[in-house]
Request: fold
Amino acid sequence: MLLVISRDPTGIEHDDYWVCSDITLPPATVVGAYTGRWSIEDTFRAVKQTIGAQQPQSWAGDAPERAATLGLLLYSLVWWWFLGLKPAQQKVTAPPWYADKVKPSFLDAVAALRTEIWRNRIFVDSNSGSISTKMTDALLDALARAA
Reply:
């Protein structure tokens, strides 16, 4: 067994440990395999938990494969739409425990899409002067993150 320890030279990040059964691999390859896999796992988590792709009751024939494919397609379309926005519209919401967050998560992209859908659905036909923009934005943000 090969034990690989990854340390941050500045000491800010905690140490990471990996065990590998192939003792001929260089340590950088072992760490690289993990970091390359992380984005894949994050995608699967988002498709299952945020989109709900694991919930369809599809057991027969090609249905399970189609449900998974549809979930991954929807994930891709949401990101494609979000990344096509102007940078100022790509809102990143930092939770209290991660105040330094600067990169958008999939939840940020979904919230932006929900906000746009709600804005078009509710406020297009409404009287534009009846509610302040600040109040409207707060309402839309709450709706987008609660759904």
